[in-house]
Amino acid sequence: MIGEKISCQVIFTMDCERAHANKQFYPPGPHTWEESEENIEAFSRVLAEEGFHATFFAVPEAAEAHSELFNQLAKSGHEIGLHLHPRSFGFGVNEFLGNLPVEIQNHLLASAKQRFENSLGFSPVSFRGGYFSASQNTFSILSQLGFSFTSTTVPRRNNSSSGANWPDWRCLPYKNSGLWEIPVSSHPWKNLPDPAFELRELFRKTFSRRNYTRNQFGKSAISHAISLAAMGLNRNSSKINGERESVSPQYLQIEHRDLFILKNITSEHIKHWRRLKLTHSILVCTTHNDVPFSDSRGRHIKILKKYCQYLHSLSDLIINSATIKSLPLELFGSKAVSTL
Ligand SMILES: [Zn+2]
């Protein structure tokens, strides 16, 4: 029925990477474990203030460094899942997870799960591959290792060199090899071409380096103009299909998107759910443990808070907080795959 509210499960996720001093190292991470801990705590505190929980995807090294913190968070309703970047975990494995042969994936995933369990004293049931990289083998292996959930796809991210090929757009959870995959929410129709993304990031870096803040520019007409320009370029390239290498869609990532983009992705989802006449749906956001959420007056904490408040203000939605493992999948059923 038109106008009926849609029950929306909102899942905030944070990928917790290894701390290291070298920012050029792949994958990037916080400089120190102290910085990581501060950011994780601040992120969970703000979410709690706004009525949300999170799923933290921790690489084995982060599980070891933050065993006490992660146990506390798990007790207060957050979830700790496993995250894996073969390049930083398995020395000598210089490849993305989805591009590795089944035997090596099996060995790495089993070892990573074991180290996670040794550190935290419980087993992870959810998994995310670094760079959203996975192959069909990954899902089978994870299923055999006792996992129940993955959130390892960004729909329309299509990049063979990193083994992250998800050319179909999906807005709902779906079953794969006995696991439920909970896709990160990406834009229903926009593929962001690399030049537009780079242009926007260039502007952003230039302004932040010169200390031009949003406040100095008023409500930052410039930032909006850049966003609009990037999205305009984006719209023009929306015919790009899955054959192109290295297509990266816009998705709900707190650190690289301003509030305008987060709201835009969300409102496009709602329009799409309305078209499909859905009564239940999900939004899955991501961020990282090197994002300075502990800077209480900083940009990221403000965007996070404002985005939470924006979600609560939407009259179309009944907002529910969920984690990956607590998602009430019975609401979605076996057909929960909805593609365009
Ligand atoms: Zn990662």
Structure description:
The protein is an alpha/beta fold. It is built from 10 helices and 13 strands. The chain has a single domain (6-185, 249-331), classed as Glycoside hydrolase/deacetylase (TIM Barrel). The strands form 3 sheets. Strands 1, 2, 3, 4, 5, 8, 9, 12 and 13 form a 9-stranded mixed beta sheet that branches. Strand 1, helix 1 (33-49) and strand 2 (54-58) form a beta-alpha-beta unit. The two termini are 20 Å apart. The structure holds zinc ion. The site of zinc ion (ZN) has 6 residues, from loops.
Can I get a quick summary?
The chain is of the alpha/beta class. It contains 10 helices and 13 strands. It has a single domain (6-185, 249-331), classed as Alpha-Beta Barrel (TIM Barrel), CATH 3.20.20.370.
